[in-house]
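Quick one, C-alpha cells below. Sequence please?
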C-alpha cells in the first residue's frame, strides 16, 4: 500500500515541473522564483525579485514611444493581474543572450504566458524580456533593476 496524505497533496502532478523556490543567488533561481510567483500569485516572492530602483519599460506601438513605471506601480499592476486571473502559466524559454559579470548581468529570454481569466477567456502570449539583474557581492541574491518588455503584441 502506497502512503499518501490526502490533506497534503502534491502541488503539481507534472513531473519535472519545478514548483519550489529557487536559490536567487543563481540566475536560474531568479527565473524559477519569477515563475513561482506567477504560478502561485505570490506578491511577496515577486516583490523580493525587484530592486528598490526597479523600472519596467514597454513599447506603446500605437503611440510609437516607450513607456515606463517604477517598482510601486509594477507591484500594484502585478497584484491586479494576480487577483483578476484564475490561473497563470509562465514558461521560460531558452536564454537568447547574456552579457555581464558576477554582479551585473543583462539577460534576454523568451517566454510563453497563459492567463486564464475564466474558462472561456484565456489569453496566450509569447514574448521576450530583457532583464538587468544586479547584486553587490557574488554571494548575495540577484535582484531585477530593469525589465524591458521586448514583446510586440
Amino acid at each position: 500500500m502506497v502512503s499518501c496524505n490526502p490533506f497534503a497533496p502534491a502541488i503539481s502532478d507534472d513531473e519535472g515541473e519545478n514548483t519550489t523556490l529557487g536559490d536567487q543567488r543563481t540566475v536560474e533561481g531568479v527565473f524559477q522564483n519569477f515563475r513561482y510567483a506567477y504560478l502561485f500569485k505570490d506578491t511577496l516572492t515577486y516583490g523580493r525579485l525587484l530592486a528598490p530602483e526597479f523600472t519596467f519599460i514597454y513599447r506603446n506601438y500605437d503611440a510609437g514611444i516607450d513607456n515606463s513605471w517604477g517598482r510601486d506601480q509594477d507591484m500594484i499592476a502585478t497584484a491586479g493581474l494576480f487577483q483578476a486571473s484564475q490561473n497563470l502559466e509562465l514558461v521560460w524559454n531558452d536564454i537568447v543572450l547574456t552579457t555581464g559579470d558576477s554582479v551585473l548581468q543583462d539577460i534576454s529570454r523568451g517566454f510563453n504566458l497563459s492567463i486564464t481569466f475564466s474558462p472561456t477567456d484565456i489569453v496566450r502570449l509569447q514574448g521576450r524580456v530583457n532583464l538587468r539583474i544586479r547584486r553587490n557581492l557574488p554571494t548575495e541574491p540577484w535582484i531585477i533593476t530593469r525589465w524591458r518588455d521586448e514583446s510586440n503584441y
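Residues 32 and 90 are 10 Å apart (CA to CA). The domain at 27-149 is CATH 3.10.450.50 (Nuclear Transport Factor 2; Chain: A,).
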